[in-house]
Design a protein that fits this description.
By secondary structure, this protein is α/β, with parallel strands linked by helices. It folds into two domains: 93 residues, Nonspecific Lipid-transfer Protein, Chain A (2-Layer Sandwich); 218 residues, 3-Layer(aba) Sandwich (Rossmann fold). The chain contains 18 helices and nine strands. Helix 11 links the parallel strand 6 and strand 7. The radius of gyration is 22 Å and the shape is globular. The structure holds S-adenosylmethionine.
């Protein structure tokens, strides 16, 4: 334990991108420059955490879930960690072959995809309703100004998507990744198009179908429970918003080929994706991260280069690109604030303390990252 603590503290002594105050049994240690923009206070409750910290982000996450330590500002802690990562890049890259061998991320076959998606999206619609906006959109909003409400920013995003797709009453739109039906309802209501949308989460499909009926567009929207690989037909337009992260790197080409086959020759496709820097893509593929272990089993973020390569091989031509990066921390902050404000409700719904800590950490991790 003492050795593990000494190793972690020697790492902390090298921190220069933020101020870290560490408290254990009343003893207070300070690391990093005084007056730094980012400052956090960490309290270690259980000394067993030191040894587990040596396992990297997994150890840090697991000990947090177990309540072995607390931090007054998890988002800033993640930001400090993210800024320190480049300094240990050589180590991460040196360990890559070993991690490839030891940390096999399961393939997203059709059966595995259903299990992986159920593990996240079938946790309960009421859980997601505690932190998403009324449209139940679970992807980056479009905050043209940070003062917008989450709902306004999500509606602005849905509207922008429909406009980019140039939707009209004569169109049949295919959506891969329904969520809870926000876009399908918006498109059918405001643009009069026919929509076929698919999810592989049963819970999502049930609520999406209900919302379609409530919105009075059941004659124009059909909600399927089909994997993207099992879809057939031809559509004028295709949209997929933050679904590609669940595809798995082994299937990126399959995904784009399928999209291309499902589109009419002059069709238009819109993809919204969370991407990773091309330099980190090999690590993303090989290693089990906090996100793809605890939150989105077997997820993998594509890089822009990978998307471009797969789209090109599927004979899709890029005609427009927009960067929503600035809007994601705001979206995530709103989700986190909603989730924290609803913590009693989340507890009433039966989610235990460990689960609530996991989700708080997940939302902070993404926002800080
Ligand atoms: C992050 S959610 C985004 C939902 C929605 N597009 C939104 O913006 O709110 C990802 C969606 O992709 C769907 N999905 C994931 N893997 C899929 C697959 N193999 N086939 C079809 N849908 C899938 C999930 O069920 C979920 O509805």
């Amino acid at each position: 334990m003492r050795l593990a603590r000494a190793i972690v503290l020697s790492g902390l002594r090298r921190v220069h991108s933020g101020r870290v105050e560490l408290v254990e049994n009343g003893e207070r240690l300070l690391f990093g420059p005084e007056g730094a923009e980012l400052a956090v206070r960490i309290e270690v409750h259980d000394p067993a955490a030191w040894r587990r910290f040596l396992r990297g982000s997994h150890g840090v996450a697991e000990t947090y879930l177990d309540g072995a330590w607390d931090c007054d500002d998890l988002v800033s802690l993640v930001r400090i960690g993210a800024r320190e990562v480049p300094r240990i890049d050589w180590l991460r890259r040196a360990l890559l072959p070993l991690r490839r061998l030891l940390e096999r991320v399961p393939h997203n076959t059709i059966g595995a995809s259903r299990r992986h998606i159920a593990a996240h999206y079938d946790l309960g619609n009421e859980l997601f309703a505690t932190f998403l906006d009324e449209t139940m959109t679970y992807s980056c909003a479009a905050f043209d100004t940070p003062e917008l409400t989450l709902r306004e920013a999500q509606e602005a995003k849905l509207e922008r998507v429909c406009r980019k797709l140039d939707l009209g009453p004569g169109d049949h739109l295919l959506e891969i990744g329904t969520g809870w039906g926000g876009l399908a309802v918006h498109a059918a209501l405001n643009y009069g198009c026919q929509v076929t949308t698919t999810t592989i989460s049963r819970e999502q499909r049930e609520l999406a179908q209900q919302r379609v009926v409530e919105a009075g567009v059941a004659d124009r929207v059909s909600v399927l429970l089909e994997d993207y690989r099992d879809l057939s037909g031809r559509y004028d337009k295709l949209v997929s918003i933050e679904m590609i992260e669940a595809v798995g790197w082994q299937y990126f080409d399959t995904f784009f080929r399928r999209c291309s086959e499902l589109l009419e020759p002059n069709g238009l496709m819109l993809l919204q994706a969370i991407t990773i820097d091309g330099r980190d893509y090999e690590l993303e593929k090989a290693a089990r991260s906090f996100a793809n272990t605890y939150v989105f089993p077997s997820g993998c973020l594509p890089s822009l280069e990978v998307i471009g390569g797969c789209a090109g091989r599927a004979h899709l031509t890029e005609v427009d690109r927009e960067d929503l990066t600035e809007s994601y921390p705001i979206t995530l902050r709103r989700w986190r604030e909603n989730f924290i404000a609803a913590r009693h409700r989340v507890a009433e719904l039966g989610y235990d303390e460990r689960f609530r800590r996991l989700w708080a950490l997940y939302l902070c991790w993404c926002e800080g990252g």
